Every structure is written in C-alpha cells, then in structure tokens.
Amino acid sequence: MIELMHSTLAKVEGSRLTALKELQEEEGSDPLKILIGTVLSARTRDENTKIAVSNLFSRFKDAIEIANADVRDIEMLIRPAGFYRVKARRIKEIAKIIVKEYNCRVPDTLEELLRLPGVGRKTANCVLVYAFDKPAIPVDTHVHRISNRLGIVDTVTPEDTERALTDLIEESYWKVINDTFVRFGQNVCKPIAPSCDICMLKESCKYYNHIKGNENNDG
Prior knowledge:
This protein is an all-alpha fold and 219 residues long. It has 2 domains: 1-12 and 134-219, Helix-hairpin-Helix base-excision DNA repair enzymes (C-terminal) (Endonuclease Iii, domain 2, Orthogonal Bundle), CATH 1.10.1670.10; 30-132, Orthogonal Bundle (Endonuclease III, domain 1), CATH 1.10.340.30. The chain has helices spanning 2-9, 19-27, 31-41, 46-59, 63-68, 71-78, 84-102, 110-113, 121-131, 141-150, 158-168, 174-187, 206-218. It starts with a helix and ends with a helix.
C-alpha cells in the first residue's frame, strides 16, 4: 500500500514534502520546533505553518524566551497560521510548562505530551514520530479519510482510526504512515474530486469501486 502511494505520488507534478517533514529535515528533528509547528499546523495550510514557525523562531530561540515573551508578540509572529490568538496562548503555556517541569526539554512520551495544553493524540504522535523517531501513527483528517475510503478501516473518529491502524499495520510502517498519507491526501486522494484516474490503489479501493458500481448501474 505505502509503495503504491509513493508510486502514484511520483506521477504528480509539483508534489512536495509536508510542512512537518520539511521542518524535520531542515531543523534536525528539533523537538520544540516540531511541537510548536504541529500546534501551528492545526486548520491551516502547510505554507502558512512554515511562515509562522520561521517568524516565531527567528525572534525567540528557545522555550525560555517563548515562555517569557509577551503573548501579543507571539500573536503577531504566528498570525499567518490562523487562529493566532488561541494558538499564541497555548504556545506560551506549553513553553512555560516545558521550562518549569521538564528543564527546557520537550517530553518524549505520549502520556507526558498529552498533559500539555492543546496537545491531543495527533499532535503528541507527530512529536513522537518527527522529533523523536519513535513508532506512532498520527491520525489527521487525511489519514482518517483515506483509511476509510480505501476500506482499510470503518471508523467514525480519528481516535478509532488510530486504534484500528495500530492493530492492522506492522509497527515497522507506523512512522511513515502520516507523512505518506498526508502527501497522498493533499495531491491525489483529495477531499473533493480525488484523482482516482492516476491512483494505483483504485482497483482495491472501496470508494472507487462504489463509484464505479454506481456508474455501471446508471448505465
């Protein structure tokens, strides 16, 4: 499945790395930047996430400086990411906890990451994968949608999808699921008008075969 997704993506002109993968490669898996970048990525485009992360860390270099920053300055810097007032407060709170409780180090366990304000399972698992190279399956809208479209799972919530994928997929593949599915969702299996014509998974895809079946019935 992963290999077929990569082969399909190779056909897409202009297909690029996701914001978190780029951040991982550019910053050497810096845990604080990955954590803040994931918080900023919520409900925003990859390019805006990158701008916001760059703005923030060009001004404040570590958790101590962010913790001591005026929240209005953080808001101004991360504005491109959208929902900047809520995100600025969360980022400042996260930085304060990291400084006070973790000696300026981002925690590296799911349980500890989930204690941080505004950090849910997707964000925590992203930090485990992209910052600490630990096996986890971060489930965002792309992973949830594509898993159900293909018929790999039949779930209602991202949390259900995470549990199902964890049971179904070998652990050795967990770390590549998020990046592969997100790229696939952005470039091929889009929410509206997916590019089924170029998809190398379509013959076994529940969604595609449902559409094809309906077309045959209409004919």
